[in-house]
Specification:
The chain is an alpha+beta fold. It has helices spanning 114-117, 130-136, 154-162, 285-291, 314-317, 357-370, and strands at residues 48-50, 58-60, 71-76, 90-102, 105-113, 121-124, 144-149, 171-182, 202-204, 212-214, 225-230, 242-251, 262-265, 274-277, 299-304, 325-335.
Length: 374
Amino acid sequence: MHRRAAALAVPLTAIALVVSSCSSIPEEWRTPAFLRMNDDALDSRLPEVTGEVGEEPEITFPDIEPPDEEISGVVSKGSGEDVLVGADDLVIANVVQYQWTAPGEGEPVEGQSSYENGAPDLIRMDQMPEYITDTLVSQPLGSRAVYVFPPLTQEEMDQAEAMGQPAPEGASVLVIDMVDRFSQGAVVPGEQSTDGGGELPTVTQDGHSQPVIEVPDEEAPEELEVVPLIEGSGAEVEEGQQVIVQYTGVRWEADDKGNHEVFDSSWNQGGVPFDTTIGAGSVIEGWDEGIVGQQVGSRLLLVVPGDMAYGESEEEAMGAPAGTLVFVVDVLGAYDNPPPPEPEEGAEGAEDAGGDEEASEGDEEAGESEEDSE
């Protein structure tokens, strides 16, 4: 039975496996200990891929039948071996999918090019199968890899059709361009220009470590407060983008022992950067309003009143932290999401692609309750 990437009819990130991280290692310690030296020559059965990494690739299929086994290789190695992809990095990649249909013949799969839709894939390497990561790990950024997955067997085609999925003809081919990566313990560069303070919390952070948040013995502000502790120099975060962040959150109100314990933090998940869609109701309103419009590379102090978080009371919060919340958020990156698929002509609901307003509101509420406790 061949290993499959869900017939590769969906974005690469759909291959993701459930995983839990257990350690936090500073960025400067995470460079792979060795480079791949004297790699074997590329398999001659791989399609020829040309063009600059960062642009839509051009592909030529060999004049042979598609192979009946998985093959892969790095067809273009990035420059600068000081920035290598690690086994548990979050990799930003442009991915294009093709179908190799016959000797010397193939075609791109419609809607499966991040160059076309302007939305790169976010690939969590520790959630990918080995046959994906083995080719990518320890390669420098800017590298281009090609994968060939053999044609589906009749049994696999029957299974796909039974699940309502298209059964592609021929072999599936992926071209993956690795353009950026974020490792465990990633933080924004630069020194804090302010620690906050005064009537707002004070924030200290030592290198690649969880920030320490000291909440003053003052009344919590009634409005959302957003203080850039480090002002980034990247592009402004736009509504609807995927953002990649490190974050820590505490309640403004102290517990019975007078402490402001961390209730949620990416640092408690091994320092693995967190990603979410921003400005679309996927997270609390304080994040949506506080992060959209900020520049990538910023470290933000967010003081979020309960009515922009989970509610003012325990009953309103329904198990989430109630009242005013304090977050420190490092905005590591922001990338466009792919556009929503267009409804098929004649499909039910095609006249109203957005769905009814009530359903939309329900989806938004569900999205907030299912996210990590930002």
